[in-house]
Amino acid sequence: MRIKYTIFIVFFVALVIIEKENNIISRVSDKLTLKQTPQTSLRPSGFSHILLKHNVSLSLMNRRLENYSEHQEGMTRSRKHILLLTTTRTGSSFVGEFFNQQGDGMFYLFEPLWHVEKMMTLDTRGTNATVAAKAYRDVLQQLFLCDFSLLETFINPLPVNHITPALFRRESSSSLCEEAVCSPFVKGVFERYHCKTRRCGPLNLTMASEFCLQKEHRAIKSVRVRQLETLRPLAEDPRLDIKFIQLVRDPRAVLASRMVAFASNYKNWKQWAMGGDVPTNDDEVKKLKGNCDNIRMSAEVGLRQPPWLRRRYMLVRYEDIARFPMRKAREMYRFIGIPLTQQVKSWILKNTQSSKETSGVYSTQKNSSEQVEKWRDSLPYSIVQVVQRVCGPTLKLFGYKFVSSEEMLMDKSVSLIEDKVFSFV
Ligand SMILES: *[C@@H]1O[C@H](CO)[C@@H](O)[C@H](O)[C@H]1NC(C)=O
Ligand SMILES: *[C@@H]1O[C@H](CO)[C@@H](O)[C@H](O)[C@H]1NC(C)=O
Ligand SMILES: *[C@@H]1O[C@H](CO)[C@@H](O)[C@H](O)[C@H]1NC(C)=O
Ligand SMILES: *[C@@H]1O[C@H](CO)[C@@H](O)[C@H](O)[C@H]1NC(C)=O
Ligand SMILES: *[C@@H]1O[C@H](CO)[C@@H](O)[C@H](O)[C@H]1NC(C)=O
Predict the structure, then answer these.
(1) For 148-161, what is the mean pLDDT?
(2) Looking at the chain, which terminus has fewer C-beta neighbours within 10 angstroms, N or C?
(3) Residue whose C-alpha is closest to residue 118's, from 155, 158, 167, 83
(4) pLDDT tens profile 272-327
(5) Is residue 148 situated within a structural domain?
(6) Signal sequence span per UniProt (predicted)?
(7) Ligand closest in space to the Cα of 182
(8) Are 218 and 196 a contacting pair, CB within 8 Å?
(9) Does the C-beta of 365 come closer than 6 Å to ligand 5?
(10) Which of these, 118, 215, 132, lies nearest to 167 by C-alpha position?
(11) Residue 9: pLDDT above 60?
(12) Is 12 exposed, middle or buried (0-12, 13-18, 19+ CB in 10 A)?
């Protein structure tokens, strides 16, 4: 399919080049009319001979070619919709900033699906995964089109006249705190809901929508989508030019991080870490396996590059971003097809304490490597074994080395991160 298409284009380009040469020749011939013999003007040139053989009119061909290049130009200029797909404790807020910091051309939303998930956990009838996946998909689709109406139905309390003081982490989306989206702050009424950069009243979602429509590109970060496959309708929506970036991290490191960050939900794990046997059939272990399987299955779909995902999927490891933030940011923007702004570059430099990539890169890299492998100090070998057992295929796919002894776990001179290239740009 792809080869045919390429041949098609090569054929067209070849025709144009030949045609241009013909034009030059004919213009030259015009000037040399005296030398031109009737025979040469009547005999089809090599090019027109091809045309006649294929019964294609030159002007029609030109028009098609014009259409094609216009189409290409339109594609490169057009608006991009970026979805950063990940799970908790993978550095996704950090990576989200790569888009939040892009500046005037980008409308960025931080975890809008929080409201959807929250509402569904409140649903006493119990919402199943299929229903949740559909809700996530539909809300995302609308948001990429700057339509907040479906999201509104999930916000609690329900917004009145599209005004809400309750949008989750509004201040994490710089677009929602800009002057154009900042309604007057009334002292004493909504004291808690102003932005960091300026004091704003509750969010007027109509204003947010209008502002969003003016922005060239739109990006959303979400830790809630379970299966990439469920988002296929977004990739096929002709109104969207969507780019999925899946961010993954070593599941052993994620577990270690969650045990600290979400301590109350990880009591069992903490107990096991202190020396209990881990029951193989425990719900917590099954949940871990379920999470790992979802992440792996999404990545497998993405890496397989089915036609609906072609040029729309990129896999990024947290560990690579931590070690080479600027390089990975550049790769992501190249994949999306828009330029990385100076503002993002400055933000990355400031927040990774790295100087220019050419100098001082090694010390930063070394330091970040240490950060990246820090979990090895806190996660006991017995728990590491459990994760490796239930998340084995996931570790393998992403290039995270298995440890086979406590000594290997503790010996940080041996990195557990294999070099691996996943991008297909
Ligand atoms: C070439 O195109 C003309 C006009 O479209 C058509 O009438 C004719 O049958 C075609 N000839 C061949 C060989 O396909
Ligand atoms: C070029 O595009 C226009 C508008 O999309 C269309 O009407 C026309 O048929 C196209 N021309 C060719 C030769 O494909
Ligand atoms: C999920 O719920 C919907 C509607 O309540 C139902 O039609 C569907 O069969 C359920 N799916 C599963 C897998 O339970
Ligand atoms: C919200 O914003 C819209 C559009 O700018 C405006 O028409 C409306 O009056 C605003 N609502 C309130 C309560 O200020
Ligand atoms: C790593 O970087 C941090 C922040 O710059 C610094 O405080 C720390 O000492 C560094 N650690 C090493 C081992 O260089």
Answers:
(1) 96
(2) N
(3) 155
(4) 998 878 887 889 999 999 999 999 999 999 999 999 999 999 999 999 999 999 99
(5) yes
(6) 1-18
(7) 4
(8) no
(9) no
(10) 118
(11) no
(12) middle
Peptide linkage before 157 cis (omega within 30 of 0): yes
- The contacts of residue 369 (CB under 8 Å, 6+ apart) are 323, 415
Q: Which residue has the tokens 């005296």?
A: 34
Ligand index nearest the alpha carbon of residue 68: 2
Here the CATH number for the domain that contains residue 188 is 3.40.50.300
Tokens of 364: 């930063």
Ligand lying nearest the CA atom of residue 369: 5
Tell me the C-alpha distance between 344 and 82, whole Å: 16
Q: What percent of the chain has pLDDT over 70?
A: 77
**Is the separation of the CB atoms in 375 and 252 below 8 Å?**
yes
Ligand 2 neighbours, Cβ below 6 Å, are 60, 63-64, 67
Hey, how many other C-beta atoms are within 10 angstroms of the C-beta on 39? Answer: 7
21-69 residue pLDDT tens: 334 333 433 333 333 333 333 444 445 555 555 556 667 777 777 766 6
Q: What is the pLDDT of residues 329-350, one digit of tens each?
A: 999 999 999 999 999 999 998 8
Ligand 2 centroid to 366 CA: how many Å?
56
- Domain of residue 363: give its range: 80-410
Q: Are 245 and 85 in contact (CB under 8 A)?
A: yes
Closest CA to ligand 5's atom 13: 367
Which of 7-11, 33-37, 201-205, 400-404 is least confident? 33-37
Query: Is the CB of 125 inside a 6 Å radius of any atom of ligand 3?
Result: no
Q: Are residues 26 and 138 in the same domain?
A: no
Instruction: With respect to residue 421, please indicate whether it lies within any of the assigned structural domains.
Output: no
b/e map 176-206, b = 16+ CB within 10 Å: bbbeebbeebeeeebeebbbeeebbbbbbbe
Among 12, 58, 67, 69, say which to mutate for ligand 2: greatest number of ligand atoms within 8 Å of CB.
67
Residue 210 near residue 145, CB atoms below 8 Å: no
User: In testing the pocket of ligand 3, which one of 124, 125, 130, 227 has its CB within 8 Å of the most ligand atoms?
Assistant: 130
